[in-house]
Structure formats: structure tokens, C-alpha cells
Request: fold
Amino acid sequence: MSAAPDPDAALMLRVRQGDTGAFAALVDKYKQPVMNVAYRMLRDATEAEDLAQMVFVQVHKSAHRYKVSSKFSTWLFTIARNLCLNEIRRRSRHPTDSIEARHPEQEDQPLQQFEDRKTASPPERLLHGELEEKIEQALAGLPENQRLAIVLCRQEELSYEEIARVLGCSVSATKSLIHRGRETLKGRLKPYLQSGAWREPE
Reply:
């Protein structure tokens, strides 16, 4: 157990006590990262937004059971992972079903749409967009755990230990997943690696 709660865990402890302001602060900080992870797992912006809403609903519902056993972000992304995998499996059984159709009560809880974190001129944005699409396609072809491990390492900058907690596996298995995923992506993205659009996970 952590010797001292991280700031986000401290906020979550306040949420457990009924502090709505603390919950709003966590949603504001993490809604975009959660949507980004969900999008890279589901490849559908609308469903990623819906799933992110479900993640924060689950966070709020689980607040009374929350204990500081790891960083808040690790706990949060574990919830996101479980909901993403549930959705992927549900899709395989019900291809035409959507999150929005199953959870109409989420419609009045809009979250911010995806943002481009970088600014560029129109030609640069066009080129960057094409390269990012190649990256997204390559990511989508990875097995689920490899894809999530790469996304968390690349975008959310979690440590191997934190990613292992999210994935529910050992640190060595996590490193192996990231290595195999990285090698697969390298092969698929070889023509684009010199562009600077792709950063390998550290």
C-alpha cells in the first residue's frame, strides 16, 4: 500500500465522503485520457465517449468501496480496461448493438470530444493526420492486451508496474507484451518511423 495517497487518490477519498467538487475535478482531469484509451480500443469516437461516461459513472458508484492501494490513475484505467474488453466481447456477439442504445441514460452527460494536442499548419495537420491514421490502423491490428499496454505506455505514460496492475499480469509479462507490440508496430510502420509522428514507448 502507498505510504501516502497521491493527489488524485486524496481527491477520490473526498469523493467517498460525498464531495461532488472533488469528483468534478477528477472527471475534468481524466475524461480526455480515458476517452483516448477507449477510442484506441474501440475505434469509434461516439462509443468511446459513451464508454468514458460509463467509466466515471462506475467510479462514482464505487466511491464508497474505494481504498488507496495504488495510484488513482491505475484504478481508473483498470475500470476503463474492463469496460472496453466487455464492449469488445459484446460486439462480437451483437455487432449492431451500441453502447448508446444500451445506456440511453448517459445521453445527458456529455463529455468533451477528442482534441489534437498539437498545433500545426494545414499541410502539416494533413500529413500528421495521414500518419496518425496509419498508426491507429497498426494499433488496431494488435491483440487487445498488447494494444492497451502500448497505448498506456505511449500516451498515458504509466510505469511498467502501473500498466501491469491495469492489465492484471506481472511486470515481466507486461514488458514482453510491450516489446512484442512494439516490434510488430515497427514492422508495420517502418516507412513512417522517420517522420516523427511515432514515438516509441520508453
Summary: The domain at 122-195 is CATH 1.10.10.10 (Arc Repressor Mutant, subunit A). The chain has nine helices and no strands.
